[in-house]
Amino acid sequence: MKKFWNRIAGTALLPALSFLLAFVISGLFIALSDAKVLKEASHPLKFMTTALSTVGNAYLALFQGSIFDPNLAHGHTVWQGFYPLSETIVTATPLILTGLAVALAFQSGLFNIGAQGQFIFGAIGASYVGFHFHFSPVLHVFLALGAAIALSALYGGFVGLLKARTGAHEVIVTIMLNYIAGFFILWILKTTTFLRPRRIDPIAPEVNPSAQLPHLAGANFRLHAGILIALLAAYFVWWLLNRTTIGFQFRAVGANAAAAKTAGISVSRVTIATMALCGALAGLGGGVHVLGSEHALTADIGGSFGFDAITVALLGRAKPTGTVLAALLFGALRTGGRTMQSNTTTPLDIVLVIQALIVLFIAAPTLVRFIFRVKNLKTKDAMTAKGWNG
Amino acid sequence: MVFSNAQKRQLRLLAVVFVLALGALYQFGFSSQSSNKTTFGFQLGKEWVIIHQWVIQSTTGSRIFAGLAIVATILGIFLVRANKSPVVGTGFAAFALVMSFLCWAANGKFIPMTGLLQGSLMLAVPLIFGSMSGLLCERSGVINIAIEGQLLAGAFASGVVASLTHKTTFGLIVAPLAGATISLLLATFAIKFSVDQVILGFVLNVLVIGLTDFLYKKLLIPYQQTWNTGPSFSRIEIPFIGKLPIIGPIFFNQTIIVYLMYLIVGIIVFALFKTKWGLRTRAIGEHPTAADSVGIDVNKLRFRNVLIAGLVSGLGGAYFTVGSVGSFGKEMTAGAGFIALAALIFGKWSPMGAVTAALLFGFADNLSGTLTIIGVSIPSEFMLMVPYIATIIAVSGLVGRVRAPAADGVPYSRGSH
Question: How many structural domains does chain A have?
């Protein structure tokens, strides 16, 4: 029993402490930038209480906006109080998929910054099949998601191909492809194929009802079947990595490419396959986002799902389960941040600071260990440096 | 005739340019029959003038320049055969191709050439600052993806301080310090804690974007009058050379930040290749163990260089606020840090290469803007993609082998190598 608790403490302690630090530091920013707090600067006691209440209110709103809002739940509609939780899951769904796209790449020793671009191409594919064709309901969803996967797998696979053939570093190529995808979607939304009739702002026609993902908890909640697809994808990644030869090859290349090559694994094939799969996962995220909650392609459909994915994967330590949990957490922060912004004077953007700080501390366990003077901290999973040429 | 690998690559590039030139000759010179004229304007302000403007029949111009491009590539091929660098040939061919394209694209229109080039330099300024920051870090073996964050921090700090104090000078002083603060985090986590530098740089960018967005909404919008109405530097024309035709208004009628940039680039080029510091910096970037064995404190020098890099890109950030519009805008650097990184790689980690690449990217960016304004049928989105496509082509080895400093991104600890 003691061993079990030690293991839990070993794996959960670092994220927990990083969390604590991130929230404390962000709290300082919230308090010290607040006019009401600064006004009390000459009275130490009052200053402290105002600061604490400001930060407390902000974090309370963050919770209310992401999990449960008692203001929405009264009498027989108590379930309605969970509306924020449904929103959290809706936001987390694409994040799980893009997070997996980054996590899987990490497992093969690749850094996929390109989830953003892959996500956009997935969204374009799903949107086109969704609004342009008419099929029976289930088939239509599969075909639209298939288009999303195919397009984005090509977009991702191209990176792998370049890396395998010419040694072009995937970080640089994916950063550039993100920009190219960003401009591409701006252009495609101006073409007559994609621009919704009688509209001048960049928006595509709504996808046909047969291609929309079904709601899971009634029409009052936006919660849709995308979360099931995302969880299935997470299971698939876990199965692939831990139960198949291909997954073993992925991890072998990630652990030591030179050794894997000596053992007869084709590093270039693994690189291409990994990037194509990662592209497919991110693109599936884009497809699910369009078919599940947005229903129409817009210029900013990508939001920051691809970028947040990197922090999600890092927080989830590049493991499928960890990624799912991290995506749910970031989804909650995002959703709650909106409520926080409208109910208190604290802008949503502090959420980015919290996210960055959490990942920063998790990446530097030595620092956390130093601050809290703890010894039992699992550090062997920390992301260690590799460099451009490695 | 046996060619080395490098020469084969040069020939491959020339072949691509040759095909492009043939395509240009057909597409711009023969397939479109337009009797319109293209006008190139060369006068911008009150500088001395040799020619005001140059008018040419659009198809004739396209044919002439495409022809020149073909001649230039053939010259390049002869240069390779004579074991010389073909860069004159490729460079001129590229220039002629652009001109051929412009004659065709802007038929019946007016292209303000001097204004186009001046705008290109202005867009390139933050890229040059950023790529110099990346250069200082990466030549000493620390990957710097946080250029974007450094620029943004510099822009924010200089905008706010200039606004609070009503003095542009204070803004200029505080910007490098803001950049160096980000560098301090980068150096501490990368060198002291051996965190993966690509991840670290990425996270630092998110941190700075989040923090500046947060403070922007919390302070700069509600209290705009005190916090975000910064003054900006005015242009200083350098006597005599500022009056030279074409190059005067482009290079010598700029704000103090641009003149500082000339100085910094000059110092870096000199210091990196002609001083003891430069030799040591290059040594710890390529082979830290060897450097250590002759008594260089690798991590100390890396730490110092990363801090200097932060000063440079922080100053570049000031260009966005006190250097141009005065006030700060949300995420106003808009990815310039990443393009600066691309310029550094495109320029093969050499200072002049990075500057050239930054100027090219600035030109492509401004050209797309200019063509959109004068109403050309090519979608501006495709023009805007050019720097990014060029970078992908560069890193895939078409332009030449791009190789990072050998120890770039690898933390150094004694005895581990």
Answer: 2
Q: Is the pLDDT of residue A385 over 60?
A: no
If asked whether residues A122 and A267 sit together in one domain, one would say yes
Same domain as A334, residue A197: yes
Q: Do A172 and B203 touch (CB under 8 A)?
A: no
Residues 191-210 of chain A whose Cβ lies under 8 A from any Cβ of chain B: none
Specify the domain boundaries for CATH 1.10.3470 within chain B: 118-372
Q: pLDDT tens, B46-74?
A: 677 767 778 888 888 888 999 999 999 99
Shared domain for A241 and A145, answered yes or no, is: yes
Backbone angles phi, psi at B45, to 5 degrees: -130, -125
Do residues B140 and B285 touch, judged by C-beta distance below 8 A?
A: yes
What is the rounded distance in angstroms from the CA atom of residue B216 to the CA atom of residue A18? 26
Q: What is the pLDDT of residues A50-86, one digit of tens each?
A: 999 999 999 999 998 888 888 887 766 778 888 899 9
- Determine the Cα–Cα distance for residues A55 and B211; give it in Å rounded to an integer: 16
At A269-322, the pLDDT tens digits run 999 999 999 999 999 999 999 999 999 999 999 988 998 999 899 888 889 999
The answer, yes or no, to whether residue B312 has pLDDT greater than 90, is yes
Q: Give residue A367's pLDDT band: very low, low, confident or very high (50, 70, 90).
A: confident
Residues of chain A positioned with their CB less than 8 A from the CB of B221: none
Q: Domain B118-372 falls in which CATH fold?
A: ABC transporter involved in vitamin B12 uptake, BtuC (1.10.3470)
Query: What is the per-residue burial (b if ≥16 Cβ within 10 Å, else e) of A90-128?
Result: bbbbbbbbbbbbbbbbbbbbbbbbbbbbbbbbbbbbbbb
Please report which confidence band the pLDDT of residue A382 belongs to, taking 50, 70 and 90 as the band edges: very low
Interface ipTM: 0.87
Dig out the tokens for B371 from the structure.
Answer: 């063509």
Closest residue by Cα to residue A291 from A203, A185, A213, A204: A213
Q: Nearest by CB to B397, from A113, A166, A184: name it.
A: A166
Q: Nearest C-alpha of chain B: how many angstroms from A158?
A: 11
Distance from CA of B207 to the nearest CA of A (A): 5
Do A25 and A145 have their domain in common? no
Per the structure, the complete domain to which residue A10 belongs is given by 1-64+350-383
Selecting from A173, A183, A349 the residue whose C-beta is nearest the C-beta of B214 gives A349
A78 lies in a domain?
Answer: no
Does B213 sit within 8 Å of A346, measured CB to CB? Answer: no
Quote the radius of gyration of chain B (alpha carbons, Å): 23
Closest residue to B219, CB basis, from A33, A179, A360: A33
Question: Cβ of A113 under 8 Å from any chain B Cβ?
Answer: yes
For B403, the closest chain A residue by CA position comes to: A389
Supply the pTM of this predicted model: 0.89
What whole-number distance in Å separates Cα of residue A35 and Cα of residue B250? Answer: 45
Whether residue A371 lies within 8 A of chain B, CB to CB, comes out as: no
- Are both A29 and A90 inside the same structural domain? no
